[in-house]
Amino acid sequence: MQELTAGRLRRGLTDPLLPVAALALLAVAAAALDAAVLCWSSIGALAGFSLSGSV
Amino acid sequence: MLFSPGWRAPVRQGEVLAVFTSGLLLGGMLSAAVIWLLSGLSAPLPHWARASAVLAAAAAGVAREFGLIRLPLPQNARQIPPDVLQTHLRRGTLQFGFELGTGVRTYVSATAPYVLALALLLAHESLPLTLLTGAAFALGRALSAALTYLARDAHRDTAIATRMPMTKTATAAISLSALALLLL
């Protein structure tokens, strides 16, 4: 049972949508604060992540 | 698969991930450097014209991801040959990462990388910022591989496949919103 719980937790923490949400918040917040470097970096990371596939 | 469970090669998967990430960074920063060089051509245009073009490209990206317009992507419809990994694993992984990092050597199935490249081309930002954005693109690509490695999930491909449509549409929409806030 403990194995199962750990596995589910690990899968939840590595869900592909979590980085999307975090980077999206970062990109919009950085843009609103006129933090160009952070904004461009977040958009760049999102673009890279959008190519997720089986590697 | 490089980062799936059931790995049997004599090299640790963590090491392969580090080499793969290095290759991605090299490729991403090389493409960013080329984009920065070409972006000099857009420098004479006024800011409003460049900002409008960036936002038009980002809006077209959103429309494409939501299926509102059909727009073929000018991708290199080629898979990186799997034999690059079979002879020398470390060198092959570096090459594999580099080719993926450039974004021009294999399939690019989402609109966001094209919008990003066009935006950098038209915005003509500084060289350090453009390189940093290229590095961030590479790290975003590496993050996907790192999460696959950490998930140790035999059904990871399914998890990714089911979330990819939402990832692509969200990325396109966020790119448009953030660029509009930043450039206007």
Description of the molecule:
The complex is a heterodimer of chains A (55) and B (184). Chain A is mostly helical and 55 residues long. Chain A has one domain (15-55). Chain A has 3 helices and no strands. The termini of chain A are far apart. The model of chain A has no long low-confidence stretch (mean pLDDT 89). With 184 residues, chain B is an all-alpha fold. Chain B has one domain (13-183). Chain B contains 6 helices and no strands. Chain B has helices at 13-39, 47-65, 89-102, 112-123, 127-151, 156-183. In chain B, helix 1 packs antiparallel against helix 5 and helix 2 packs antiparallel against helix 4. The longest helix of chain B has 28 residues, at 156-183. Chain B is globular, with a radius of gyration of 18 Å. The N and C termini of chain B lie far apart (43 Å). The model of chain B has no long low-confidence stretch (mean pLDDT 90). The interface between A and B is large, with 37 and 58 residues. Chain A: The chain crosses the membrane at residues 20-49. Chain A: Keywords: Membrane, Transmembrane, Transmembrane helix.
Helix/strand structural class of chain B: mainly alpha
Question: Sheet bearing the most strands of chain B, described?
Answer: none
- Point out poorly predicted stretches of chain B: none
Query: What is the domain total for the residues of chain B?
Result: 1
Quantity of strands of chain A, as a count: 0
- Could you give the distance between the termini of chain B? 43 Å
Q: Label the structural class of chain A.
A: mainly alpha
Mean pLDDT of chain A: 89
Determine the number of helices of chain B (DSSP H or I, runs of at least 4 residues): 6
Largest interface: A-B, 37 and 58 residues
Number of strands of chain B: 0
Transmembrane segments (chain A): 20-49
Keywords (chain A): Membrane, Transmembrane, Transmembrane helix
